UniProtKB/TrEMBL annotation:
The keyword tRNA processing does not apply. It comes from the Bacteria. It comes from Streptomyces griseoviridis. This is Cyclopropane-fatty-acyl-phospholipid synthase. It is an enzyme of class 2 (transferase).
């Protein structure tokens, strides 16, 4: 009799102490759970062994990336239903050790071990980064982390990001954002950054973490500035240089494969850092802010566009998301926006404006997921089934996190205000609709 789904559902509910809000389909074809709900497909017993050997998010991630787990139905709905139960249980949630003190939980785990079969730990998927001992955020480890994420093939990024090749939050018209295109919204974001920096012909701009060159091209072409863009990704740099040559802007834009800490040819009139500071790390953030401050002319502006997390009661308890750290952004760290502002101020900046654009990123991510799903077969050929699955899960889950205010994104405009106190900004820098 095929009953693995019912047994699995009962054991998981016993272990979690709550009803499972999704339907379950097991490897024997059996199903159990709420009719009409998204279905969690457990393709084989190996999925259970992954969860038992790595309980929590990393075990789930490994099963998903390997194809041992899947979702039949609306992925967003499934993640939404599972998030509070598994990933978002809060700071007061029991640890695994505390949970295992409960006799019912121990009994459920024994039942899962029996259902999982021979206790051999499956090898992690090939897409998981292999850790090395040593300090984080050195020049060597940062370069390796950036390469893991960005050097997977420019064709894959073209498929996901679209023609704009901008890998950061777009800026959508409110409130009917459904009518705009991703390309228009990304152009509007780049223009917003240029206007905040007050770029004018003849100025010199440093674009830290320049990606595939979109910000540099827009600033040079539309605002007449000269640009130095720095990235640690060889593939990004090659792609950006090709685009720049095609635009006829090689005399105005220089792309370097260089760590921002090694830029020595200041001063610059303005600096843009868009979606890069998440890679810096808490221990290095003040150094990052100080380096950018030193590279600016007096009166120069910094636009720092950065994802932020919600603050915790005990900040020392913060840990990096296991799935993101192992498969997406190795060594990446998020900080509350207040921490970012404080560090910029400690470095000497005067923070003049903070614009929260959280909802814009949720909509951007949904467009990227749609691009990936529409080109799924090609994406799998370009990278691997596992890496394509990493991106689908990461972007869909991130979209929900932005929608539910678990994370946000902010543009912080800061000035290297001279001793005279003249910031150079208008009295009313922004108007509200």
């Amino acid at each position: 009799m095929a009953d693995a789904a019912l047994r699995l559902k009962s054991l998981v509910e016993q272990m979690l102490g709550a009803p499972l809000p999704v339907r379950v389909r097991a490897w024997d074809g059996s199903e159990a759970g709420p009719p009409g709900a998204p279905t969690l497909v457990v393709r084989n017993r190996r999925a259970l062994r992954r969860l038992l050997f790595k309980p929590g998010e990393l075990g789930l991630a490994r099963a998903w990336v390997a194809g041992d787990l899947d979702v039949d139905g609306d992925l967003y709905a499934a993640l939404d239903l599972l998030a509070e139960l598994i990933w978002e249980r809060g700071e007061d949630a029991r640890t695994l050790g505390q949970a295992l003190r409960d006799p019912e939980v121990r009994a459920a785990v024994r039942g899962l071990v029996k259902l999982a079969g021979p206790p051999l730990p499956p090898a992690p998927p090939a897409e998981e980064i292999r850790r090395r001992r040593g300090h984080l955020h050195t020049r060597r480890t940062d370069k390796r982390a950036i390469s893991h994420h960005y050097d997977v093939g420019n064709d894959f990024y073209e498929l996901v990001l679209g023609p704009s090749m901008v890998y950061s939050c777009a800026y959508w018209p409110a409130p009917e954002s459904e009518g705009g295109t991703l390309e228009t919204a990304q152009r509007d974001k780049l223009e917003l950054v240029c206007r905040k920096l007050d770029l004018k012909p003849g100025m010199r701009l440093l674009d830290v973490g320049c990606g595939w060159g979109s910000m540099a091209i827009h600033a040079a072409r539309e605002h007449g500035v000269t640009v130095v863009g720095v990235t640690l990704s060889q593939e990004q740099a090659a792609y950006a240089r090709k685009r720049i040559a095609e635009e006829g802007l090689t005399d105005r834009i220089e792309i370097r494969v260089q760590d921002y800490r090694d830029v020595q040819d200041g001063p610059y009139d303005a600096i843009s850092s868009i979606g890069m500071a998440e890679h810096v790390g808490a221990e290095k953030y003040l150094e990052y802010a100080g380096d950018l401050y030193a590279l600016l002319k007096p009166g120069g502006r910094l636009l720092n566009h950065q994802i932020a997390r919600r603050p915790q009661r005990d900040e020392s308890a913060y840990s990096v998301d296991e799935f993101i750290d192992s498969y997406v952004f190795p060594d990446g760290e998020l900080a509350p926006v207040g921490t970012t502002v404080t560090q910029l101020e400690r470095a000497g900046f005067e923070v003049r404006d903070v614009e929260a654009i959280r909802e814009h990123y949720a909509h951007t991510l949904r467009r990227w997921v749609a691009n990936l799903e529409a080109g799924w077969e090609r994406a799998v050929r370009l990278v691997s089934p596992g890496r394509a699955r990493v991106w689908r899960l990461y972007m869909a889950a991130s979209a929900l996190s932005f929608e539910h205010n678990r994370i946000g994104v902010n543009q912080v405009l800061a000035v290297k205000t001279p001793e005279s106190g003249a910031s150079g900004l208008p009295l009313r820098a922004r108007t509200w609709n």
